[in-house]
Amino acid sequence: MKKLKINGYHSNPINPYQHYSQTTKRLAQTKQSSQVKSDQVNISDEAKKLQGIKRLETERMTKVNTIKEKVENGTYSVNTDEVAKKMLSYWNSK
Predict the structure, then answer these.
(1) What are phi and psi of 90, to 5 degrees?
(2) pLDDT reported for residue 28
(3) Fewer CB within 10 A of the terminal residue: the chain, N end or C end?
(4) d(Cα 6, Cα 21) in Å, to the nearest integer?
């Protein structure tokens, strides 16, 4: 018959609750250190130029809306000579 040792030579000397406590402390420290750091956003010059496009879009929409109103009122007139000249210059450039 063999005898078994409950707390023998190869038993784990570390208390599992102590290990858990140390792990949670380390996690709390890493969370605190990550909270100290802050995010930064740098907007490039190109992006700043693109932000100016919004202003152009609003100007274009006001222009389109005024043309729509003129068309609905019947007061919009087209200069056919000017349209023909631009069409010819476009097709001649190709």
Answers:
(1) -65, -50
(2) 75
(3) N
(4) 25
Can you give the three-state secondary structure of 4-43, one letter per residue? CCCCCCCCCCCCHHHHHHHHHHHHHHHHHHHHHCCCCCCC
pLDDT in tens, 27-65: 777 766 655 567 788 888 888 777 777 778 888 999 999
| pLDDT score, position 36 | 58
- A 10 A CB-CB count for 6 gives 5
| Residue type present at position 43 | I
The span from the CA of 32 to the CA of 71, in Å, is: 64
Q: What global pTM score does this model have? A: 0.36
DSSP assigned state of 94: -
The mean of the pLDDT values for the chain is 79
Amino acid at 50: L
**Contact in structure between 61 and 69 (CB atoms under 8 Å):** no
Identify whether the C-beta of residue 29 lies closer than 8 Å to the C-beta of residue 23. Answer: no
